Amino acid sequence: MTGEGRKGEGRKGEGRKGEGRKGEGRKGKGRKGKGRKGKGRDGLGSRKHGIDPPPIVLVDSCVWHRSFTRNVLRHLAIEGAIRIRWSRTIEMEWIASVLRVRPEIARAKLLSVRDRFRMEFPDGLVPDRLPRPKLPPLPDPNDAHVLVAAISAQASAICTLDRGGFPGRILRPLGLSTLSPKALLADCVLHRLPATARALQDHRANLTNPRYSIDAYLEALHRADLVAETIRADKLRAALLVKPQ
């Protein structure tokens, strides 16, 4: 599902500091153990010997469209708070979406972003053209590739701004759910705080043009609609102040 909300590109100043620590960054295979799909007792993913492996999340093209949101998810994945997945069709959709809204951006720049994700997350790109299982039709048949990619990825959730396009009656029997980006970040804060704190701190540190104070960064998260009502501002502030582990 493409989505052209706010202008998604053009945020300058993210360098390459801290790109390969944990989770699936660079060589990152992430932690092993997929467990049962769907929501466990402690958020997305499952429990194995009392430890939650990072959930596998299929990210829809409408979420990739926004540069700030895309980079928050990137840092969450680098630090092991989530394992992100996408498909070639999703790549084509978000790049085309950005170019429609921001034609002044060079296509080569967006292809470089695409290639960077492929390099950092070698397990991230999944098929979306497998022989399709017989599935109930989605409201928009053009979204079928998203569902197929999520099944191929063995994802527990689809992160999308179009939750109505993926009805629960279709997803629940498949062990899937939908989450908005802010709901996904809230799940990470509530259930995988150490990795999430590192991710948000690294993301803020990489925003250098201009540099962001903690207050300015929190405001940017709000502007990007990444702060769920279930997460208080002091909880996010604490995540930005916690000493990295």
| Terminal Cα span | 37 Å
Helix content: 40-55%
Using the coordinates shown, work out and report the CATH topology.
Rossmann fold
Number of strands: 6
Largest sheet: 4 strands, parallel
Estimate nothing, just give the exact number of structural domains: 1
- From N to C, what is the helix and strand string? EEEHHEHHHEHEHHHH
| Overall outline | globular
Estimate what percentage of residues fall within beta strands.
Answer: 5-15%
Structure description:
With 245 residues, the chain is of the alpha/beta class. The chain has a single domain (53-241), classed as Rossmann fold, CATH 3.40.50. It has ten helices and six strands, in the order βββααβαααβαβαααα. It has a four-stranded parallel sheet with strand order 4-3-5-6, sandwiched between helices. Strands 1-2 form a two-stranded antiparallel ribbon. The longest helix has 14 residues, at 88-101.
